[in-house]
Amino acid sequence: MVHCGGNAREAVISLGTSPGGTVDIDVAVVGAGFSGLYMLHRLRGLGLQARVFERGTDAGGTWFWNRYPGARCDIESVDYCYSFSSELLAGWTWTERYAAQPEILRYLGHVADRFGLRRDIQFSTRVTAARYDGAGNRWLVSTDTGEVVAARYCVLAVGNLSSVQRPDFPGLGSFRGEWYHTAQWPASGVDVQGQRVGIVGTGSTAIQALPQIAKRAARVHVFQRTPNYSMPAQNRPLPPGELRQVLGGYPARRRMAEESDAGVPVAPPERSALEVTPAERRRKYEAGWQRGGINALSYAFTDFFTDEQANFTAQEFAREKIRQIVRDPAVARALSPVHHIGTKRTCVDTGYFQTYNHDHVGLVDVRRSPITAVTPRGLATTAREYGLDVIVFATGFDAITGALLEIDIRGRDGLPLAAKWAAGPRTYLGLCVAGFPNLFMITGPGSPSVLSNMVVSIEQHVDWITGCLEFLGNQGLDRIEASAGAEEAWVRHVNELAGATLYPQAASWYVGANIPGKPRVFMPYVAGCGMYRQECGAVAERGYQGFLLGAGSSAQAARTGSGS
Ligand code: N01
Predict the structure, then answer these.
(1) pLDDT digits (tens, 9 = 90+) for 113-128
(2) Which of 70, 101, 454, 460 is the most buried (most CB within 10 A)?
(3) Candidates 34, 97, 161: which one to mutate for ligand 1, based on the most atoms within 8 Å of Cβ?
């Protein structure tokens, strides 16, 4: 009997117990965000006994933790949601074009309630290790509560941006004020009314948070190392009539998103930025800017991500916008990025650049004068000390691999995942890893993941894993492992695709550049959701091509997915 706690409904589930005293289940799922919740729902549909482990006190993943002021999605709400249930779609009302964090968290809570998911989620429980036991063909999943659960399959639904990154400035312990990381923001909020606030970082998070924080703070210093491009969200309320209209044509809209590059229902561009006149280019960029959103400029022309000159035209447009918005030319210059636009995640804002026009908001260039220490009174750079009451670290994440490697994962013959990935992540389809049988990751490295609408990608991965487990069950099999050859070919394919774009040139978290010592490997799959969906579908149709399949623990029982 297992008691599921947290602030969720109290629930008790019965599970089989193996002779060694460990609990035996079919599938262990790590994480109860968008991916873990849907995975659990589908596993139940297969009649499998699953348990989800979640470190938070409730469901929501990213949206549970990132409660900083201004947090909202940068994909339109009507697309940033599940599509698997038409009743769920019809039963939920999005109130804004881009939903704010509280609304998305309520939505995920609603999903958990509607499908009775909480009874199989063990909250406030961090998975610390997962070890493949070859003899028993099962994963032994250990938690920080001291429990060990044995599961035939293990699904890592830990999110791409969940391993918090905070620079190790000396002196933090001496700071007399309060400090917070945006991804560990207190549920009770932080009142910055009349306070002197320092924000470290100018990524998507800080760009959303600054305008909100500046509304209440007496003084804000933004410590910027690298400026970023940001598109206006053009957020607005979503009238019920418009929502009804969207839902009326939803299946076609979703199909378009699934077949698109970025997982959004936008028609792909048809022309190069360089084959149109400057006036036509400007007209397209301006229309995108007015429409707003993350793809405001990137969907204008075919060669945005592949041609330096084409990309430059969009950069120039974005920099011109900054110069138009920010009154002080020196501040505008300092806020103007120089990297290829889109090669670091493009930000989406509501009033970010405008906020620098307020007298109480200042920009500190920490590229020129790096932060040296946190002092009892604030932050010190090589140039001076800034007196602060509150420090906000909007310093990001150890992206894509960080949350996976926080767990001590060991595959066949005790091989640590960290050792296997010492030179960068290697996967087959971003779903599985050679040497790690029966282990799946949702939106792992080598899949479109962060380059796409995460919910579209999550649904596709969960559906693929569900189909795979169903196939294995129907065939009397219970063992699947990516072959080394298929993995090698996939890694090469992913790298070749990325190498044909401008992406790898930027010092971004996509390549791990924000984490000292992290191998520089461009991690996502760049050819888009539609192409990727086809590749995964073809692998399944060919009897799980590139996988070794088997029954029980016997290596001899393994056979290769047909066609590989
Ligand atoms: O993190 P980031 P984020 N000294 O890594 C700076 C998603 N997201 O939390 O660029 C000084 O982008 C760092 O500087 P630099 C989205 O995918 C989505 O903002 O490394 N500065 C950078 O400016 C996004 O991309 C939404 O030179 C330091 C900042 O901290 C991803 O999450 C909203 C520093 C970190 O920026 C991560 O965004 C929010 C140091 N020692 C986030 N260390 C949506 O809209 C780091 N920095 C859905």
Answers:
(1) 999 999 999 999 999 9
(2) 454
(3) 161
